[in-house]
Structure prediction request, 372 residues.
Amino acid sequence: MGALGGRLAAIAVTALIVIGFPLGAIGMVVLSTQRPDEHTGMIVCSGGGPGGGTQPVDRQLLDASSMDIARTIVDVVRQRRLPRRAAALAIATGLVESGLHNLDHGDRDSLGVFQQRPSQGWGMPAQILNPVYATNSFLNHLVALTGWATMPPGVAEQAVQRSAFPGRYAPREQQASDLVAKFWSGPDNPVPPSGGGLQPVSATPSCPDHEASNLPVSPGSGGLPPGFTYPSDASEGAAVRFAVAQVGKRYVWGGKGPDVYDCSGLMLAAWAAAGVAVPAGTLSQVRAGHAVADAGQLLPGDLLFIAGALGTAAVPRHVGMYAGNGVVVDAYDEHHGVILEALADWTRRIVAIRRVADPATPSPSPGGSQHG
Prediction:
């Protein structure tokens, strides 16, 4: 089976909750290790991911990716100094449209968390498939509505989305408000004046780092080797070119760009640039796409997982992208930021490899809500 195969099999053993899976595939649900702060009641940062890992919210179990995206939405709203109500409306919409998942399919050309349509002016697929851009775009449409903050439940969401099923939004507002309460800190913000609140931001959660690498950084790392060539495949090439172009940018845990990234946020943004949706967070990305048996079968764009500074072989907490030509690109930690490393420095530590885009693998069947 080989060293990597043995480490892949070891992922089946964990002190957290792991569901059985075939050899080479990872299928686990990790419950959050976060606890409410004793003074504010808010969820504090922990190893469960920026969103706290899989959690029950209003009698529904939301996975780690959904919780991560919920936190991203709240962070964008807070940094735009918009009221909590804006976060609740955005999350309610995301719950209806995608279950707070970053989808690469939907009705007609609908994409992403909010099922926004490129053909209707919401942006390019590479933009919509990044939850930070998608949230900013939703909020721009929301705050342009006169009186949005005091509209009855479901009305503002429908005015933004123009859904064929307008009655679906209002019932999700309580669950959305419960999610906002987990992540909101400080007082509420006032409703901005007419024409205000339109400045997009990067989401930068104020969390200590839980997904840093622990590999030694070799002297001389940081540049592409002589003769490096980008992949000829269009999707692989777009993802790798984007990831490499971010080298030198800062690392912030939970960051998904465009100015700061964590390790999984860089993977999400890079594949979004190729028009491919991947889930948010390392805990979810380690189950994305399909497994690659060993490093000898690597293709550019494959996601490489190691335990990292705070993870284990069973629950890897750091991810990088194979760029080709023996190079890995990753958001390393708060000190190094996004860097290039030698694949040889990673090989002995890799516990999982996932291929998120493969021409041989059919896309999911269309789904999602129908809206204009």
